[in-house]
Specification:
The complex is a heterotrimer of chains A (314), B (163) and C (505).
Chain A lengths: L1 H10 L12 E4 L6 H15 L7 E4 L6 H10 L6 E6 H9 L10 E16 L7 H10 L5 E4 L5 H12 L8 E4 L5 H7 L5 E5 H10 L2 E6 L23 E8 L5 H15 L2 H10 L2 E6 H22 L4
Parallel strand pairs in A: 1-2, 1-3, 5-6, 5-7
Antiparallel strand pairs in A: 3-9, 4-7, 4-8, 4-9, 4-10
Chain B lengths: L15 H22 L14 H23 L10 H37 L5 H22 L8 H4 L3
Helix pairs in contact in B: 1-2, 3-4
Chain C lengths: L2 H12 L2 H18 L6 H12 L4 H26 L8 H12 L3 H36 L2 H15 L7 H15 L2 E2 L6 E2 L13 H19 L19 H23 L5 H15 L12 H24 L5 H12 L8 H4 L1 H31 L5 H19 L3 H19 L5 H23 L6 H4 L1 H32 L5
Antiparallel strand pairs in C: 1-2
Classes of the chains: A alpha/beta (314), B mainly alpha (163), C mainly alpha (505).
Chain lengths: 314, 163, 505
């Protein structure tokens, strides 16, 4: 127990009830990324709320989470105390990488958070609305360069869906993939590309300061505090969210699954988790049980269709 | 890697090891050609597609292979010192053992074995001393980095005593 | 309040004894973790960030700044002493620094790295405070074509690390480039050279390759010499401290390194290692002792170390003024800032001046504490070299693998470490330089992606590559850097130049 004592010295002792399960939580990404942050926030909340006494985070980075997923499915089979963090990016990565282990091989528990995509242009751009963007796309799809995250990711998928909904051939979009972080944003701010597409949080402060113009967001409802329409309101039948979820190991009994679901339910309603959502700026999109499974199946098939349309998956 | 005959000054014998290197370069180049040929050019707007740069690298590697052959016949490669095989085998064996033991025996035992094997490679063959020293040292490292800093280092039977 | 008053107020808060103590703890922890090969500043900050959450905002901000600078600096110590760079930004440091350490001049090498880091950190932090808005405008002008031109320039400068044979230098570089194409092609999502192995989809990790080729390759090479050599290295020859000549040869590289590193760090796709390459090449060209390069030239440590730290401060320019995290480290810092209620972005300086200036003051203090901590420790660090070889190299391999396992605990990654270690050993045996392989792995994808982005945006028009004034200027500099030495060589000064060319091992 030596390291526990040391940890308490450093981190401040926490009151820990004795009955709870010790969870192992896999973040299928390197320390620091979105999934890792989700996993570590879950760890803190589970421990502080006394839902679990001791939560260990394991990082298994690689290939959009598919490496971690494969390892999780094979090594944790039937273990009721193993969890993995994942998300929409995994859905796309499984398809483009032709991963042998898919989300069918784990037990999805609940969707936790989500972020809407934002479609932006530099303030100096002649494009003022989604209608202008659609007109430019229809005239010459190659002249509209889209700056966003990596190929086949949620940004690319959203751009493909927009083109398709606007009646433009999705294979003709001129999508420029940038490495994550701020590279895409810099290219948009410097007017290197015509339009930017990425998570709303990535652009938020630029939109507020007026250096970027928000044309639309991709959710079902508008983002509070913004005036831009949703894509649906702007006449394009597109709805995409970049969500994050937590799943359990395959081969669980119904009781085991129910117990994990109950623990996650306890977690999402807890004060610690709600505060985390606020400080991190994550949107609460909690959905569990059959409703989540149905939504997941829908997302997977829609993603497969659009990736084929863009030409990334055969 | 095999040892070619050393060049003696004034002799015009090809440097066989350098020829092997050239062959390896040709092989790498071939693999890249083979792989790049099957890529689909999906991004229609850039004339430089996913296969272009690998192809260019493969071509240059071929040219470098030719150059290496010329250098081999002219004896342009520097003389090599005699390499002791046994110590190298110890260190490589230690790394391989760590790799294989890591997930079953845990970080401390696996890395302790590496520690002892490396020391043996450098002449300290008293494994009954270096192995326990290595394992204890690695356990301390594990306690600091996995316990205190939450680094995910694999735990084995030894580490579980402290969990 | 004016800029200056805010800064002064921040400094007063940061200089309180308790906060100084937090800065010292931060710097110590950051150095301790950052010193591990394979664990760069990003991972260091990610691992240690939770420690700061327990403190009040001012204290945690200061400790955080300490961790950041400590992590940045930690990598150079192992680079210099053990020839095992902790991260990509200190690879260049190993070239000259380790040669110095082996000649018993590890003390001056560590000192010039520490003081250079301090000078660069100080100047760059001041730069951050006063010229950030200007620098950020410059950075945004850089689009894909300008970056491509910058990469071409970086490629040309790499030749200064080629060693004495163009053939072997080029071969090493192209092996690195070939390795760099492995994995998912970012622009089209297709996999290249992965042959269905999922672990290869993300490509080869730069730190894995660097640790393998330097630390493990070196260990194997030394082991293969057998026990004929002395059991230990002579750690100190002459003074452990920098002498007059060292100072005279260091101060200009510090300043030049800062000037090169800061703007490149501020560029969204620049990266700390590019600055170190350019600085090394510049010092080699400008040095009065070019023949010493490759045998332990102090300028080759002073310049790149300054560039490395200046670019770390440079990264904060787009982060604070635009909310742009341009490196993994910056992305993690962004997460850290949000914890303190700081929302980086264009409005930050206006809405939250106290916190921004508090941060800048913390950085200054942390930078100072780094010097306070590390200068006295230099005597202790160089003693590392007096550890008998068996234990020293056993320890190096322990920590080298610890870094790799910590970043990604997979058997496959360890297998790559072993395979590249053997490659590094074989290359050493045949007189191939090591650094170009790692440089190729870093620069290859950057150059390729920027070229393809530029061409996609222009819809296939190659002329865009030359029509921007910045891109054209950079390409001209690159062409001159390539052609001038050839002309000089043709005019019969070839012997001097071939002596200048560094012999890496």
């Amino acid at each position: 127990m030596k390291h526990i004592i040391l940890a308490s010295l450093l981190a401040g002792a926490m009151a820990l009830p004795a009955y709870a399960t010790d969870y192992t939580l896999m973040a299928p990404a390197a320390p620091g990324g979105g999934w890792d942050q989700t996993a570590r926030s879950l760890q803190t909340a589970l421990q502080q709320e006394g839902i679990s006494k001791n939560v260990q985070v394991i990082n298994v980075p690689g290939a959009g989470g598919t490496i971690g997923l494969a390892q999780f499915a094979s090594q944790q089979k039937g273990k009721a105390n193993a969890l993995i963090v994942g998300g929409y990016v995994m859905v796309g990565a499984i398809l483009t990488n032709k991963a042998p282990v898919t989300l069918k091989d784990v037990t999805p528990i609940a969707r936790l958070t989500g972020e809407n995509e934002a479609i932006v242009v530099p303030a100096s751009s002649p494009l003022k609305s989604v209608a202008d963007l659609v007109a430019a796309l229809k005239k010459d799809p190659g002249s509209v360069s889209w700056g966003g995250g990596s190929a086949g990711g949620v940004d690319h998928i959203a751009a493909g869906l927009i083109a398709k909904a606007a009646g433009v051939d999705p294979t003709k979009i001129n999508y420029i993939a940038f490495s994550g972080g701020g590279e895409a944003l810099a290219a948009i701010l410097g007017s290197q590309v015509t339009v930017g597409i990425s998570g709303y949080g990535e652009f938020e402060s630029q939109i507020k300061s007026g250096t970027l113009r928000l044309l639309a967001t991709s959710g079902d409802t508008r983002i509070p505090g913004t005036e831009a329409p949703t894509l649906k309101e702007a006449g394009l039948d597109v709805s995409v969210q970049n969500w994050r979820m937590v799943a359990a190991a395959p081969g669980l009994t119904a009781e085991q699954k129910a117990a994990v679901t109950a623990d996650v339910q306890k977690l999402v309603t807890s004060k610690t988790w709600q505060e985390t959502l606020k400080t991190k700026g994550w949107q609460d999109t909690y959905l569990s049980g059959a409703a989540f499974e149905a939504q997941l199946a829908k997302d997977i098939s829609a993603t497969e269709t659009i990736l084929k349309d863009i030409g990334l998956v055969k | 890697m095999n040892q070619g005959p050393l060049n003696k000054a004034g002799e015009r014998r090809p440097d066989w090891a350098a020829l092997v290197i050239a062959a390896v370069l040709v092989a790498i180049s071939g693999v890249i050609f083979f792989d790049a040929a099957r890529l689909r050019e999906v991004s229609g707007y850039s004339p430089v597609g996913p296969g272009t740069v690998p192809m260019a690298i493969a071509v240059v590697l071929l040219l470098l292979a030719v150059w290496t052959v010329i250098a081999a016949f002219r004896g342009d490669f520097p003389e090599r010192e005699k390499q002791e095989v046994q110590p190298v085998a110890w260190v490589i064996g230690g790394l391989a053992a760590q790799m294989l033991l890591l997930n079953t025996a845990g970080f401390s035992i696996a890395t302790g074995v590496l520690f002892a094997a490396t020391a043996a490679g450098f002449g300290k063959r008293k494994v009954w001393i270096s192995l326990p020293v290595g394992i204890v040292l690695c356990l301390v490292v594990w306690l600091i980095f996995a316990g205190l800093l939450q680094l995910s280092l694999p735990a084995g039977p030894l580490e579980r005593l402290f969990q | 309040m004016s800029t200056f008053e805010f800064l002064l107020q921040g400094l007063v808060i940061a200089a309180q004894p308790m906060n100084l103590f937090y800065a010292l703890i931060g710097v110590t922890l950051g150095t301790a973790v950052g010193v591990l090969p394979g664990i760069g500043p990003a991972l260091t900050v990610a691992l240690l960030l939770p420690v700061t959450y327990q403190l009040d905002p001012a204290g945690s901000l200061i400790m955080f700044a300490g961790i950041y600078y400590g992590g940045m600096y930690g990598g150079s110590t192992t680079s210099i002493l053990l020839n095992t760079p902790g991260e990509s930004a200190s690879i260049v440091t190993a070239l000259e620094g380790n040669k110095m350490a082996r000649a018993g001049r590890g003390g001056p090498a560590l000192a010039t790295a520490a003081i250079g880091s301090f000078v660069a950190g100080l100047l760059a932090t001041i730069g951050l405070a006063f010229i950030a808005p200007f620098i950020v405008k410059l950075a945004l002008v850089f689009g894909p074509r300008e970056y491509f031109a910058l990469m071409v320039l970086a490629f040309v400068t790499v030749s200064s690390a080629f060693g004495d044979s163009t053939l072997r230098g080029l071969t090493a570089l192209f092996i690195g480039l070939a390795l760099s194409t492995i994995g998912i092609d970012q622009l089209t999502g297709q996999t290249r050279l992965a042959f269905g192995v999922p672990d290869l989809l993300d490509g080869i990790e730069v730190t894995t390759l660097a640790v393998a080729m330097f630390a493990i390759g070196e260990t194997l090479f030394i082991a293969a010499q057998g026990v004929k050599g002395p059991d230990k290295v002579e750690a100190v020859k002459g003074s452990v401290w920098m002498n007059r000549a060292d100072w005279a040869r260091s101060w200009k590289p510090w300043l030049r390194g800062t000037v090169i590193g800061f703007p490149i760090g501020a560029m969204p796709a620049g990266g700390a290692e590019i600055g170190t390459f350019l600085s090394y090449a510049a010092e080699k060209r400008l040095s009065k002792h070019p023949e010493e390069f490759g045998h332990g030239a102090i300028e080759g440590v002073a310049g790149p170390e300054a560039a490395n730290n200046a670019s770390a401060a440079g990264t904060l320019v787009p982060l604070l003024t635009l909310g742009l995290p341009t490196t993994a480290t910056a992305a993690i810092m962004l997460a850290g800032f949000q914890q303190y209620g700081l929302q980086p972005g264009p409005l930050l300086f206006a809405t939250n001046p106290q916190l921004v200036w508090g941060l800048i003051a913390s950085l200054l203090i942390a930078n100072f504490m780094l010097l306070v901590l590390n200068l006295p420790l230099i005597g202790l660090w160089v003693r590392l070299l007096t550890i008998p070889k068996p234990w020293l190299y056993a320890g190096i391999l322990l920590f080298a693998t610890l870094g790799t396992i910590g970043a990604n605990p997979s058997v496959f990654e360890l297998g790559m470490l072993l395979a590249f270690g053997i490659l590094g050993y074989v290359m050493r045996v045949f007189g191939y330089p090591i650094a170009p392989v790692v440089v190729g792995l870093i620069l290859g994808p950057l150059a390729e992606q920027q070229l393809r982005r530029a061409l996609a945006i222009s819809q296939g028009d190659f002329s865009v590559l030359f029509t921007s004034p910045i891109a054209a200027g950079l390409l001209i500099v690159a062409a001159l850097a390539l052609i001038v030495p050839l002309i000089l060589r043709a005019r019969g000064r070839g012997e001097v130049l071939s002596q200048m060319a560094a012999n890496e091992d």
